[in-house]
Amino acid sequence: MFVTKRLNRIAKMSLFAILLAASLFLLPGKNVEAASTKTKALKAYSKLLAKSTIEWGDTGYTMDLSECKFQIIYLDDNSVPELLIYGPYTSTDLSSSYQVLLYTYKNGKAKYVAEFYSNVSYYKKKGIITDQLYTAASTIDYYYKFSGTKVRRKLAKSIYQMSTYYYTKYSGSEATYITKAKFNASLKKLVGSKKAKTVSYHKNTAANRKKYLLS
Questions:
Q1: How far apart are CA 184 and CA 167, in angstroms?
Q2: Cα gap 130→84, rounded to integer Å
């Protein structure tokens, strides 16, 4: 009996040692693969930013990239960042108020995802990105869900004439007014306790691309 229990204990310890060794062997491979993909993504973003001009989203206009700024963010839950490109609005450059472009890395290339208004912020690794639209009578904060290569509008919070708040929930193309409590509950479901991060941008120069993307 004693011998049998001892053999069982030895067998369990041996199995644990084998599993531990296997995990230590496999994890570095995954980490190396993720690091390699991140490096490739950053190189693709640097290559995009090094161009002289860029098509400004779906507006049909072109922006001089030397006038733009950039930043990388970790929007979804992986180690490969997304790219934001900020282009200051001027009436001679664009006929819309879209100021920020979002790119992701897909199939070996920097892929355009969406365009946003000003004051972009995001919830790190929660897939939620926000922007802000100003009109003559109101300010609207939109909340979008990023899913790989697309974004979908999920929520909005607006203030009308600096006094009245409205809250909206989106489902596909349908928009429904909701209470503040339901808005807060919906946002918490999307981001948990994570706080929004504001975005500061780097001037798009060769030195900054090397420093922030290639070093």
A1: 10
A2: 12
CB contact set of 193 (below 8 Å; sequence gap of 6+):
none
Instruction: Tell me if 118 sits within 8 A of 132, measured CB to CB.
Output: yes
Six-digit token string for 196: 């929004």
Query: Which residue in 43, 95, 98 sits closest to 72, CA to CA?
Result: 43
What gap in Å lies between CA 189 and CA 173, rounded to an integer?
20
- CA–CA dist 115, 80 (Å, integer): 20
Q: Which SS3 state, helix, strand or coil, does residue 176 take?
A: strand
Angle (CA) 196-201-202 rounded to 5° is 150
What does the block give as tokens for 67?
């006038």
26-79: pLDDT as tens digits? 445 556 666 799 999 999 999 999 999 999 988 888 999 999 999 999 999 999
Q: Which two tokens stand for residue 180?
A: 């503040």
pLDDT tens digits for range 160-195: 988 899 999 999 889 999 999 999 999 999 999 999
What are 92-97's contacts with CB under 8 Å, separation 24+? Answer: 93/56, 93/61, 93/63, 93/64, 93/67, 94/56, 94/59, 94/61, 94/63, 95/59, 95/61, 96/59, 96/61, 97/133, 97/134
**What pTM, to 2 d.p., does this model score?**
0.82
Cβ of 48: how many Cβ atoms within 10 Å? 19
